[in-house]
Amino acid sequence: MICGRACVGKKTKILVNKIRPGEIAVIFHKDIDELAASFLLEKKAKAVINFETSCSGKYYNKGPETLIKAKIPLIDVISPYQGEIKEGDIVKIKDNGDIFVNDKFFSKGKFWDLDSLNKCKNLAKQNIDKHLLNFIENTIDYIEKNRDIIYSNYSVPDVNVDIKGKHVLIVIRGHEYKEDLSILRSYIEEMKPVLIGVDGGADAILEFGYTPDIIIGDMDSISDEGLLCGAEIIVHAYPDGKAPGLERIKNLGVKYSIFSVTGTSEDAAFLLAFEKGADLIVAVGTHTSMLDFLEKGRKGMASTLLVRLKMGHILIDAKGVNKLYKRKEENISIILPLVLTGIIPIFILFLNSPILSHVFKLIYLKLKLVLMMF
């Protein structure tokens, strides 16, 4: 039996900012993505109770597999259930899947294991072509609605940070963002790029010992500490003026400006850097594939496609760069023994050759005389 205090969150990305080690995460997350699972793992959740289907078979999401392989129990609530689970409730999950809240029966649950995930994976393989076609069609349909991006029919807010002619590093808290950011440390130290954090990406920058110059987004996955770090705050609003993160910013009492533009917050960050004259834009943790967007609940990627076309050659996507670096290390580990294999016989020959040994002694004596003069 599993027992622990409940930490409840309608949005997993918000819940991971408050959950404590040993608590049971209670989420409402259909098709748990790998990034959310890695955060729950990092926060040492004792178990995860999901009121949605953790793996529907629409596409193969790696979140459930990440949790199960880390031996974190994952259980989906089976309707009907009695009442609700509240923050701080004591939850018990029995081995048969029965869920009790404050010692009262709440609902039956379905434990996920690798066998059930394999069935989901096989279903996803059958569905992938259909969803890919729908994704492409939705992207094409929405391109017309996002054409303002190409014509720059939006007002870019003024910023105090000088971006013109500089490198800009934009950090999004996407898959493997930590690994990629680690590889870019030497680049950051040498080039001193303008650092822009997109929502939780600002916390990532702070975690690595740097301070973001600008924070942009709808402010739903960044910590209060991040918002109060001294960076310029730009709230992403949609063309209709709706800005989901504005109320939180006002409550914190920090200065802000608004950038009203269609698309995602990371699209807005790219457009800001581009319009302010960045010489090079380097992106970490971006969302670029169909799987990335399906995990975010988006049916297409029209705005992102148009933004990337507009950026052209000045945009470099550093997503996955850590894999290239690892491969480089693997190559070195293979080459180094080969080099040593060639050097060792030469060294042995050197030691056993009277002429070379004599030369070595002469060099040694000269060095000794020079050192004695100081």
Automatic annotation (TrEMBL):
Gene3D superfamilies named among the record's database cross-references: Thiamin pyrophosphokinase, catalytic domain (3.40.50.10240)
GO BP terms, alphabetized: thiamine diphosphate biosynthetic process
Thylakoid recorded as keyword: no
Keywords of this entry: ATP-binding, Kinase, Membrane, Nucleotide-binding, Transferase, Transmembrane, Transmembrane helix
Annotated TM spans: 334-364
Matching SUPFAM superfamilies: Thiamin pyrophosphokinase, catalytic domain
UniProt domain Thiamin pyrophosphokinase catalytic: residue ranges: 192-225
GO molecular function, one term: kinase activity
Annotated SteA-like C-terminal domain residues: 319-370
UniProt cross-references to Pfam families, sorted A to Z: SteA-like_C, TPK_catalytic
Keyword Repeat set for record: no
Protein name: Uncharacterized protein
Organism expressing this protein natively: Thermovenabulum gondwanense
Lineage, top ranks: Bacteria, Bacillati, Bacillota, Clostridia, Thermosediminibacterales
